[in-house]
Amino acid sequence: MYLQLNSISKVFKETKKETLQDISLEVAKGEFICIVGPSGCGKSTLLNLVAGLDTPTSGTISLDGQPVTGPGADRVVMFQEAALYPWLNVMENVLFGLDAAGYPKARQLEIAEKYLKMVQLWHYKDYPIHQISGGMKQRTALARALALDSKLLLMDEPFSALDKQTIHILRAELEGIWEKTKKTILYVTHSVEEAIYFADRVVVMAENPGQIKQIIPIRFARPRNIEAPEFTALRKQILNEVSLSARKSVADEFDGPEVNQA
Ligand SMILES: Nc1ncnc2c1ncn2[C@@H]1O[C@H](COP(=O)(O)OP(=O)(O)OP(=O)(O)O)[C@@H](O)[C@H]1O
Ligand SMILES: [Mg+2]
Protein backbone atom coordinates (compact mmCIF):
# COMPACT_ATOMS: atom_id res chain seq x y z
CA MET A 1 0.00 0.00 0.00
CA TYR A 2 1.15 3.51 -0.81
CA LEU A 3 0.20 5.17 2.48
CA GLN A 4 -0.09 2.94 5.50
CA LEU A 5 -1.25 3.86 8.99
CA ASN A 6 -0.71 0.99 11.40
CA SER A 7 -2.63 1.12 14.66
CA ILE A 8 -1.92 4.77 15.41
CA SER A 9 -2.73 6.18 18.80
CA LYS A 10 -2.10 9.64 20.17
CA VAL A 11 -2.07 10.74 23.80
CA PHE A 12 -1.18 14.42 24.27
CA LYS A 13 1.22 14.86 27.19
CA GLU A 14 -0.50 18.03 28.34
CA THR A 15 -3.93 16.47 28.77
CA LYS A 16 -3.04 12.74 29.05
CA LYS A 17 -6.19 12.14 27.02
CA GLU A 18 -6.25 9.48 24.36
CA THR A 19 -7.12 11.60 21.34
CA LEU A 20 -6.69 8.92 18.71
CA GLN A 21 -7.08 5.20 19.31
CA ASP A 22 -5.95 2.36 17.08
CA ILE A 23 -6.26 4.09 13.71
CA SER A 24 -5.38 1.82 10.81
CA LEU A 25 -5.82 2.90 7.20
CA GLU A 26 -4.36 1.89 3.88
CA VAL A 27 -4.47 4.28 0.96
CA ALA A 28 -3.66 3.36 -2.62
CA LYS A 29 -1.63 5.60 -4.91
CA GLY A 30 -3.90 8.11 -6.61
CA GLU A 31 -6.74 7.59 -4.17
CA PHE A 32 -8.85 10.51 -2.91
CA ILE A 33 -9.73 9.90 0.74
CA CYS A 34 -12.05 12.20 2.69
CA ILE A 35 -12.19 12.17 6.49
CA VAL A 36 -15.34 13.34 8.27
CA GLY A 37 -16.34 13.27 11.91
CA PRO A 38 -17.58 15.46 14.75
CA SER A 39 -15.58 18.49 15.82
CA GLY A 40 -12.79 17.46 18.16
CA CYS A 41 -12.65 13.80 17.09
CA GLY A 42 -9.03 14.17 16.02
CA LYS A 43 -9.14 14.75 12.25
CA SER A 44 -6.52 17.51 12.30
CA THR A 45 -4.42 15.58 14.78
CA LEU A 46 -4.44 12.61 12.40
CA LEU A 47 -3.45 14.78 9.43
CA ASN A 48 -0.63 16.37 11.45
CA LEU A 49 0.73 12.93 12.29
CA VAL A 50 0.76 11.94 8.62
CA ALA A 51 2.40 15.29 7.81
CA GLY A 52 5.07 14.51 10.39
CA LEU A 53 4.33 17.71 12.31
CA ASP A 54 3.69 15.58 15.39
CA THR A 55 4.51 11.97 16.32
CA PRO A 56 2.10 9.19 17.27
CA THR A 57 2.28 7.78 20.80
CA SER A 58 2.19 4.32 19.29
CA GLY A 59 1.81 2.85 15.84
CA THR A 60 3.62 3.58 12.60
CA ILE A 61 3.04 5.52 9.39
CA SER A 62 4.74 4.83 6.08
CA LEU A 63 4.52 6.43 2.66
CA ASP A 64 5.75 4.60 -0.43
CA GLY A 65 7.67 2.19 1.78
CA GLN A 66 9.42 4.91 3.82
CA PRO A 67 8.59 5.43 7.49
CA VAL A 68 7.24 8.90 8.33
CA THR A 69 9.38 10.33 11.13
CA GLY A 70 9.05 14.07 10.54
CA PRO A 71 7.99 16.61 7.95
CA GLY A 72 9.21 15.87 4.43
CA ALA A 73 9.07 17.11 0.85
CA ASP A 74 7.03 14.04 -0.10
CA ARG A 75 4.04 15.47 1.81
CA VAL A 76 2.48 18.90 1.40
CA VAL A 77 -0.17 20.31 3.76
CA MET A 78 -2.89 22.81 2.92
CA PHE A 79 -4.77 24.42 5.81
CA GLN A 80 -8.07 26.24 6.23
CA GLU A 81 -6.27 29.58 6.01
CA ALA A 82 -3.73 29.70 3.20
CA ALA A 83 -0.30 30.02 4.79
CA LEU A 84 1.11 32.36 2.14
CA TYR A 85 3.97 34.83 2.41
CA PRO A 86 2.21 38.22 2.49
CA TRP A 87 5.29 40.12 1.30
CA LEU A 88 5.49 38.06 -1.91
CA ASN A 89 3.11 38.17 -4.87
CA VAL A 90 1.11 35.20 -6.20
CA MET A 91 3.84 33.97 -8.56
CA GLU A 92 6.61 34.46 -6.01
CA ASN A 93 4.68 32.41 -3.47
CA VAL A 94 4.67 29.49 -5.88
CA LEU A 95 8.31 30.03 -6.88
CA PHE A 96 9.45 30.16 -3.26
CA GLY A 97 8.87 26.46 -2.61
CA LEU A 98 10.37 25.47 -5.94
CA ASP A 99 13.47 27.51 -5.21
CA ALA A 100 13.80 25.90 -1.79
CA ALA A 101 13.46 22.51 -3.50
CA GLY A 102 16.47 23.40 -5.66
CA TYR A 103 14.91 23.64 -9.12
CA PRO A 104 16.89 25.73 -11.64
CA LYS A 105 15.35 29.19 -12.30
CA ALA A 106 14.03 28.46 -15.81
CA ARG A 107 12.37 25.24 -14.64
CA GLN A 108 10.84 27.06 -11.65
CA LEU A 109 9.16 29.54 -13.99
CA GLU A 110 7.87 26.77 -16.24
CA ILE A 111 6.38 24.81 -13.36
CA ALA A 112 4.86 27.91 -11.70
CA GLU A 113 3.23 28.90 -15.00
CA LYS A 114 1.78 25.43 -15.51
CA TYR A 115 0.13 25.31 -12.08
CA LEU A 116 -0.97 28.95 -11.95
CA LYS A 117 -2.75 28.30 -15.24
CA MET A 118 -4.24 25.10 -13.84
CA VAL A 119 -5.79 26.97 -10.91
CA GLN A 120 -6.83 29.86 -13.19
CA LEU A 121 -4.59 32.45 -11.58
CA TRP A 122 -2.15 33.18 -14.38
CA HIS A 123 -3.59 36.65 -14.95
CA TYR A 124 -3.16 37.46 -11.30
CA LYS A 125 0.41 36.24 -11.01
CA ASP A 126 1.79 39.71 -10.16
CA TYR A 127 -0.85 40.57 -7.57
CA PRO A 128 0.28 41.04 -3.98
CA ILE A 129 -1.38 38.56 -1.62
CA HIS A 130 -3.33 41.23 0.25
CA GLN A 131 -5.04 42.26 -2.98
CA ILE A 132 -6.57 38.89 -3.82
CA SER A 133 -9.72 37.24 -2.47
CA GLY A 134 -9.88 34.33 -0.01
CA GLY A 135 -10.68 31.93 -2.85
CA MET A 136 -7.70 33.19 -4.83
CA LYS A 137 -5.48 32.74 -1.80
CA GLN A 138 -6.53 29.11 -1.56
CA ARG A 139 -5.93 28.72 -5.30
CA THR A 140 -2.43 30.13 -4.80
CA ALA A 141 -1.84 27.70 -1.95
CA LEU A 142 -3.12 24.87 -4.15
CA ALA A 143 -0.84 25.88 -7.05
CA ARG A 144 2.10 26.01 -4.64
CA ALA A 145 1.24 22.60 -3.23
CA LEU A 146 0.77 21.01 -6.67
CA ALA A 147 3.95 22.60 -8.04
CA LEU A 148 6.02 20.72 -5.48
CA ASP A 149 4.74 17.47 -6.97
CA SER A 150 4.73 15.72 -3.61
CA LYS A 151 3.59 12.13 -3.20
CA LEU A 152 0.80 13.10 -0.87
CA LEU A 153 -1.43 16.13 -0.57
CA LEU A 154 -2.86 16.68 2.91
CA MET A 155 -5.77 19.09 3.05
CA ASP A 156 -7.42 20.24 6.30
CA GLU A 157 -10.74 21.92 5.50
CA PRO A 158 -9.08 24.03 2.80
CA PHE A 159 -12.28 25.62 1.55
CA SER A 160 -14.33 25.89 4.73
CA ALA A 161 -13.58 29.57 5.37
CA LEU A 162 -14.90 30.55 1.91
CA ASP A 163 -18.38 31.55 0.74
CA LYS A 164 -20.67 28.90 -0.76
CA GLN A 165 -20.34 30.01 -4.35
CA THR A 166 -16.54 30.04 -4.21
CA ILE A 167 -16.59 26.64 -2.53
CA HIS A 168 -18.60 25.17 -5.41
CA ILE A 169 -16.25 26.59 -8.01
CA LEU A 170 -13.13 25.43 -6.19
CA ARG A 171 -14.56 21.97 -5.58
CA ALA A 172 -15.13 21.49 -9.29
CA GLU A 173 -11.64 22.79 -10.03
CA LEU A 174 -9.94 20.56 -7.48
CA GLU A 175 -11.89 17.57 -8.75
CA GLY A 176 -10.75 18.30 -12.31
CA ILE A 177 -7.15 18.80 -11.18
CA TRP A 178 -7.20 15.54 -9.26
CA GLU A 179 -8.52 13.71 -12.37
CA LYS A 180 -5.64 15.23 -14.35
CA THR A 181 -2.81 14.79 -11.86
CA LYS A 182 -4.01 11.65 -10.05
CA LYS A 183 -2.54 12.91 -6.79
CA THR A 184 -3.01 10.91 -3.64
CA ILE A 185 -5.12 13.14 -1.37
CA LEU A 186 -6.12 12.96 2.28
CA TYR A 187 -8.82 15.57 2.71
CA VAL A 188 -10.44 16.53 6.01
CA THR A 189 -13.84 18.19 5.81
CA HIS A 190 -16.81 19.10 7.99
CA SER A 191 -19.09 18.69 5.03
CA VAL A 192 -20.45 15.25 4.27
CA GLU A 193 -21.62 16.65 0.93
CA GLU A 194 -18.06 17.63 0.08
CA ALA A 195 -16.75 14.24 1.15
CA ILE A 196 -19.16 12.38 -1.14
CA TYR A 197 -18.43 14.81 -3.95
CA PHE A 198 -14.68 14.10 -3.88
CA ALA A 199 -13.90 10.81 -2.28
CA ASP A 200 -13.12 7.34 -3.53
CA ARG A 201 -13.66 6.39 0.10
CA VAL A 202 -15.08 8.36 3.01
CA VAL A 203 -13.54 7.65 6.40
CA VAL A 204 -16.09 8.34 9.14
CA MET A 205 -14.53 9.04 12.52
CA ALA A 206 -16.10 8.90 15.97
CA GLU A 207 -14.90 10.77 19.05
CA ASN A 208 -13.70 10.10 22.61
CA PRO A 209 -11.36 8.58 21.74
CA GLY A 210 -11.00 9.44 18.07
CA GLN A 211 -11.34 6.28 16.03
CA ILE A 212 -12.42 5.10 12.61
CA LYS A 213 -16.05 4.14 12.73
CA GLN A 214 -16.66 3.23 9.13
CA ILE A 215 -15.06 3.44 5.70
CA ILE A 216 -17.55 3.97 2.89
CA PRO A 217 -16.58 3.52 -0.76
CA ILE A 218 -18.25 6.04 -3.09
CA ARG A 219 -18.90 4.61 -6.50
CA PHE A 220 -20.82 7.43 -8.25
CA ALA A 221 -19.40 8.49 -11.62
CA ARG A 222 -17.53 11.81 -11.76
CA PRO A 223 -18.13 14.68 -11.96
CA ARG A 224 -20.79 14.03 -9.35
CA ASN A 225 -24.16 15.67 -9.25
CA ILE A 226 -24.85 16.64 -5.66
CA GLU A 227 -28.55 16.94 -6.42
CA ALA A 228 -28.99 13.36 -7.64
CA PRO A 229 -31.34 11.35 -5.37
CA GLU A 230 -28.77 8.61 -4.68
CA PHE A 231 -26.29 11.29 -3.62
CA THR A 232 -28.77 12.86 -1.21
CA ALA A 233 -29.67 9.46 0.22
CA LEU A 234 -26.05 8.57 0.87
CA ARG A 235 -25.43 11.96 2.43
CA LYS A 236 -28.28 11.38 4.86
CA GLN A 237 -26.97 7.94 5.70
CA ILE A 238 -23.47 9.25 6.46
CA LEU A 239 -24.81 12.24 8.42
CA ASN A 240 -26.66 9.69 10.48
CA GLU A 241 -23.48 7.72 11.12
CA VAL A 242 -21.67 10.86 12.19
CA SER A 243 -24.52 12.05 14.37
CA LEU A 244 -24.53 8.82 16.36
CA SER A 245 -21.17 9.85 17.73
CA ALA A 246 -21.59 13.61 17.81
CA ARG A 247 -22.64 15.49 20.90
CA LYS A 248 -25.02 17.93 19.29
CA SER A 249 -27.32 18.33 16.32
CA VAL A 250 -25.12 17.25 13.51
CA ALA A 251 -26.92 18.40 10.42
CA ASP A 252 -26.69 22.01 11.58
CA GLU A 253 -23.05 21.69 12.42
CA PHE A 254 -21.96 19.85 9.34
CA ASP A 255 -23.83 20.98 6.29
CA GLY A 256 -26.02 23.85 7.46
CA PRO A 257 -29.75 23.81 8.18
CA GLU A 258 -30.80 23.44 4.52
CA VAL A 259 -29.73 19.80 4.61
CA ASN A 260 -32.64 19.07 6.89
CA GLN A 261 -35.09 20.14 4.25
CA ALA A 262 -33.63 17.86 1.57
N1 LIG B 1 -1.44 20.05 20.99
C1 LIG B 1 -2.48 19.57 21.66
N2 LIG B 1 -2.40 19.35 22.98
C2 LIG B 1 -3.42 18.83 23.67
N3 LIG B 1 -4.61 18.51 23.13
C3 LIG B 1 -4.76 18.70 21.82
C4 LIG B 1 -3.72 19.25 21.01
N4 LIG B 1 -4.16 19.33 19.72
C5 LIG B 1 -5.43 18.87 19.75
N5 LIG B 1 -5.79 18.49 20.98
C6 LIG B 1 -7.08 17.91 21.37
O1 LIG B 1 -7.31 16.78 20.60
C7 LIG B 1 -8.67 16.66 20.22
C8 LIG B 1 -8.80 16.57 18.73
O2 LIG B 1 -8.46 17.81 18.15
P1 LIG B 1 -8.44 18.02 16.57
O3 LIG B 1 -8.06 19.42 16.33
O4 LIG B 1 -7.62 16.95 15.96
O5 LIG B 1 -9.97 17.75 16.21
P2 LIG B 1 -10.72 17.95 14.80
O6 LIG B 1 -11.44 16.68 14.54
O7 LIG B 1 -9.75 18.41 13.78
O8 LIG B 1 -11.77 19.08 15.16
P3 LIG B 1 -12.40 20.23 14.20
O9 LIG B 1 -13.40 19.52 13.35
O10 LIG B 1 -13.04 21.16 15.16
O11 LIG B 1 -11.29 20.85 13.42
C9 LIG B 1 -9.36 17.87 20.84
O12 LIG B 1 -9.95 17.49 22.05
C10 LIG B 1 -8.24 18.85 21.08
O13 LIG B 1 -8.50 19.68 22.18
MG1 LIG C 1 -9.59 20.19 12.64
UniProtKB/TrEMBL annotation:
<dbReference type="InterPro" id="IPR050166">
    <property type="entry name" value="ABC_transporter_ATP-bind"/>
</dbReference>
<dbReference type="InterPro" id="IPR027417">
    <property type="entry name" value="P-loop_NTPase"/>
</dbReference>
<dbReference type="InterPro" id="IPR003593">
    <property type="entry name" value="AAA+_ATPase"/>
</dbReference>
<keyword id="KW-0067">ATP-binding</keyword>
<dbReference type="InterPro" id="IPR003439">
    <property type="entry name" value="ABC_transporter-like_ATP-bd"/>
</dbReference>
<keyword id="KW-0547">Nucleotide-binding</keyword>
<feature type="domain" description="ABC transporter">
    <location>
        <begin position="3"/>
        <end position="232"/>
    </location>
</feature>
<dbReference type="GO" id="GO:0016887">
    <property type="term" value="F:ATP hydrolysis activity"/>
</dbReference>
<dbReference type="GO" id="GO:0005524">
    <property type="term" value="F:ATP binding"/>
</dbReference>
<protein>
    <recommendedName>
        <fullName>ABC transporter domain-containing protein</fullName>
    </recommendedName>
</protein>
<keyword id="KW-0813">Transport</keyword>
<dbReference type="Pfam" id="PF00005">
    <property type="entry name" value="ABC_tran"/>
</dbReference>
